[in-house]
Amino acid sequence: MTGLRYVYAVCRPFGAALEDGPAGVAGVPPRQMSHRGLIAIVSTVPEEDFAEAPLRAHLEDLEWLTATARAHQGVIDALTSVTTPLPLRLATVFRDDSGVRAMLEEREEDFHRALERLDGRVEWGVKVYAEEERKESVQEPAGDRKAVSGRDYLRQRRLRHQAHEEMRENTERFARRLHETLSGFAEDSLLHPPQNPALSKAAGRNVLNAAYLVPRSASEAFVERVDRENSGVPGVRVELTGPWAAYSFSADEGRARP
Hints:
Layout: E1 4-11, E2 31-35, E3 38-45, H1 47-50, H2 52-58, H3 62-80, E4 86-87, E5 93-94, H4 97-106, H5 108-118, E6 121-130, H6 150-185, E7 188-191, H7 197-200, E8 205-215, H8 219-229, E9 236-244
Antiparallel strand pairs: 1-3, 1-4, 1-5, 2-3, 6-8, 6-9, 7-8
């Protein structure tokens, strides 16, 4: 086949068909490439888009990058439903099949070790947000309303500050307790840096951004545990995402997850 080889993930041989028949990057359905007990999931993509120079330009194009990331993720999601994939980084491209096989051979031991560790496991993400605090305004004197004295104004400001600090401490205490509880339930966990709200567009301050490695068979119990711990704490919002391929726990830590 002419064209370059786009590699999504590495996994063990599996017999089930991929759900929904993912279209793949550049609209090319993925195929399996076998090599010594490993499977690379690849698509043949056009050189005019994925050679080094045009790819570098495309990675600056948000629309192209978003479409490619979604197609990449669609393949990873389909794989996760039938096997345990090790996702590779977005836009991992090789010249031909021999380049893919050389990569598999070079990293064979690492891939087998990671697949042994992650087999039958998925990743769940948990984020805790402190809801945005309402800005209270000092009422201006009107009509016969008594003006607020300078001392009263400072007192109100101090009380509001104390209330905000107490809410902040309660949220962080809740996040620490939740992470400790879920880490004890999961086989492994990882703390990511808090999300930048300007990039994530999520409301509130991100207090916890964590990933948990959980056996697929225990996923329902894990979700129930999160729900149980999130018992309507005032000023706190908990978001659960997954199940994902184990991005955070694979050696190559994929970059295409939304």
